Structure prediction request, 254 residues.
Amino acid sequence: MSSPSGKSNPLSQPQAASELQLETPWRVVVLNDPVNLMSYVVLVFKKVFGFDETKARKHMLEVHEQGRSVLWSGTRETGEAYVFTLQQWHLTAILEPDEAH
Amino acid sequence: MKRIEVRLSLPVVAPLLDVIKGLVADLQSAPAAPVSPPDPDDEFSSEWTRDLVAAQSSDVEVLLSLFGAEFFTEGVVHFDQSNAEAIARSCSAVRLRVRERHLKGLSDESLEAGEVDLSKLDEGVRRSFTCYLFLATIQELIIQHLDESIIGS
Prediction:
C-alpha cells in the first residue's frame, strides 16, 4: 500500500532534504592553523567580511585561543561563497549548520 | 599608487628561491591548505578544488615574477596594489607547503613562537625554515604598508 505522504515517495526525499538545506541557517567557521600569521588572518577577515580592526582581531584571537571562531551566519549559498574565498586565502574554513536556530 | 621597494641580498635569497621553485609543481596540483567542500557531491567537490588550485597557481606565478631579471641584476623587488594581494596569498600557500614537506620535525609550538635553534638543523631544513621566515617577512611588509590597498581593492 502506498501513501501520498512524502516519506514513502523516494523522489520527494531529496527535494525535502535540499529544501531543508536551503532554509536552515548555516555558519562559516574558521579553524586554527599553526602556519598563518596572526596579522595575515586579521587582514583576511577585514578583507572578506569588511570587519574593522577590532572585530577582525577579536575573531583572530578566538581562532588562536579556542581553535575556532564563527565568522558569519546566514544562507547556505552565501556561506559557501565565504568558505570558498577563505580557502582561497588558505585559511581552514568550513560550513556547518547553525544549530542555534 | 603606493609602492614599496625592497632591496634583498642575492646570495641569501637565491637559495630560498630554490625551495619555493621546488614546491611549484605541487602547488599547481593540490590546494596548500586543508579543503572541505561544503557539498559531498563528487562533481561539486572536484570543481571546488580545481578552482582553488587554479587561483593558487595564478598567485604563485605572481610571486615567482617578483624574482625576475631586475632582482638578479639589482637585488630589488617591488610590491604595490597590483601584486600585493596575490603575493600575500601565495606566501601563505608556500609556507603551508614548506611546513608540510620540509619542517615536519619541528613542533607547531616552536614554529609559532619562532623558537627554533638554527644551529641544530641540517642544511636542507635550515634553508627551508629560512624560506618559511622570509615569506612571513614579505607578508608582514605587505600587511604593514599595503593592507589598505588590499582591503580596498
Summary: DSSP finds four helices and three strands in chain A. The interface with chain B takes residues 33-37, 39-40, 43, 46-47, 76, 79-80, 83-84, 87-95 of chain A (CB under 8 Å). The mean pLDDT of chain A is 84. Residues 25-97 of chain A form a domain with the Ribosomal Protein L30; Chain: A, fold (CATH 3.30.1390.10).
